[in-house]
Amino acid sequence: MDHEIRVLTDAQEIGRSLEGFLTPVEHEGFRTPVESDGFRTPVDDPSRPGGPAPTTGAYRQALRPQAARAYGTAYDPATPQSTQTPERLGGPATSFTSWMVVPGGRKVPQAAVTDVGVLPTPTRRGLVSALVRHQLEQCLARGEILAALRADEATIYERWGFGIASQVASVEISVDRARFRAGVPQGGDVRPVDLRQRADQDLLARIYTGANWVGAVDRPGYWWRAQAHMRHLSTEQHYAVVHGIPGHEDGFAIYRPQDAATWFRSTDRGIVVNDFVTTTSRAHFGLLRHLLAIENVQRVVLDPMPVDHSIEKLLTDERALTTRGGRDETWLRLVDVQAALTARSYRAPGAVTLEVRDEVLRENNGRYIVSAAGPARTEQPPDITLDVSQLACAYLGGTAFWQLAQAGRIAVHRDAGLAAADHLFGLRRAPFSGTAF
């Protein structure tokens, strides 16, 4: 199929492209389109936490400089030829500039990829591949050394160099059985805020600027506005509390009732906390105590949470808590391998030579010797040969090299090199983002 890849700058074209993205998604039942303020805005299925960001006007405006869209010559057979325009939308691929915290604490420029899809008629003609390749080349030109996405399907993105770099879990706590152990800190003051008020939305955004855990990503202003718009369209009531005295807040939780329609007759009331952000341990303890003390609530579900959250260790009865997961969260792509390897830190001592293969961005092909001093190009024989997608799995420390080796996903030429790689790239805590886009 003949097609053209180009960047859209016109608001109406961007609107058309996003409507095109929604077409196959609507057919799959993931979202329902809603007319709002002149824009078609997706409303996520409540059973599917997070999901792609909504297409509000502010969101579109922010995406314009980086919204790579594809137009093709494919026609919909169901539409009479006479009604079709010479240039018909094939599908969009969108990204916005963000950052990600990598091991060592640096906030590295990344592209947050979203709204990738083609219409049902031009599928299997190379259009998505062309879109993603073009998008990654744009990222490289802008100096975004990483790209990340949340995948609706698990078998698509590895072919373009993406790998699962972090996972999340769902944590359910039985309130009646949950008692904190003696010695668990009390935490500080917790107070409610109004999610409908711009000042309180801005407060949450200010708290989030302290996000410093590996895997955390930027939440730009339009991300917050998009979330507010989604809540406005939702039929469910959302609540929020913040931790800390005014001017020194260090955490917040956003939650909603579970099965709100049967809430008043239910004997098993639950709340779902879908955004739990703490930048200090004091806030972590204070917010957990507050959530477990809400009257007439029998269950508290925190989703998403890190797979190694260890909340059960705070309780006298660890069986009061059930962890389900993990499931994939961050799909990561190393756009510039050398720059990405340079950006993160490594544990001393040791060194490993990696031979990286990248069929999409061939500049990344080559051998890299990695140590606590950083990476360097080399010609010496490799200890490990791997695709860039497998390197992405291990980059944040969420997957060990030995796991990839055991699954036959990497080639190990020297066992000592495998052990060195696991030591160098290993982390004390599992990576976690907690942000959908």
TrEMBL record:
It comes from the Bacteria. Residues 215-323 form the Eis-like acetyltransferase domain. Residues 31-58 are annotated as: Disordered. Transmembrane segments: none annotated. InterPro entries: Acetyltransf_17 (IPR041380), Acetyltransferase_Eis (IPR051554), Acyl_CoA_acyltransferase (IPR016181), Eis_dom (IPR025559), SCP2_sterol-bd_dom_sf (IPR036527). SUPFAM superfamilies: Acyl-CoA N-acyltransferases (Nat), SCP-like. Residues 337-432 form the Enhanced intracellular survival protein domain. PANTHER family: N-ACETYLTRANSFERASE EIS. This is Acetyltransferase. It comes from Kineosporia succinea.
